[in-house]
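Fig. S4 source data, part A: sequence.
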Amino acid sequence: MVIPEISPEYVTGKIIDFIEKEVKKSGCTGVVIGLSGGLDSTVVAYLCSRLDDLDVLGISLPVISSNIDAKKIARDIDIRFKEIVLHEILDSISSSIPKDVWRQDKLAKGNLVARTRMSLLYYHSNINNMLVMGTGNKSEWYIGYFTKYGDGAADIRPIGDLYKTQVRQLARYLEVPENIIKKEPTAGLWSGQTDKNEIGMDYNTLDKIIYGVEEGRSINDIAISSDINVDLVKKVLKMHKNTVHKRNMPPICRL
């Protein structure tokens, strides 16, 4: 099974037009991007750098040390840049949490990092009259691989209908540096964290499974046609089912 290739020129034009219309409709004057130095946020930044008459602000939010890649990206595409190192903010929050809990619960701490980042992005969007750009792709959205109200929060999601493999294709068309394209994907929530380890498979495998599901193929057909272990197919379907709440608005008790 092969993921369909996109027409990069068409997709670029479509996304830029989409962003410009949404910003104009909102009455804002620009966009703010959480610039991690990873593939997805870099592609969104490259696209936003092509916007006409709109202010673009890239904000790097590393936990401990400065993000060299994010700085270089902002400089290369000539957008405004700001960096906020989070360790002092996180230290302040952690002082109200029992130390043994703070040290042991890696997932909760990682989610706190993601939500702190988004709080700061929305603060800067408020004071600059900007929209917050989502940088998540279709692959991550399908399996719920994002933090609810963290990196999953945004005003618009420009690349939300592109598989990760298609984002890479678009990146090459936009002339994103090869070291960014080949960089090991990570949310940067803790030391040594990688997308592949968290998801349990690489994005090429994940994308083939999701594409097969969207084509209406059976579990066995997806596994056989893509030479993928059937257990991985079942795992992706389970992740999708278990994360429905992340993709939907909170339910309301109707009276």
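Fig. S4 source data, part B ends here. The domain at 8-190 is CATH 3.40.50.620 (Rossmann fold).
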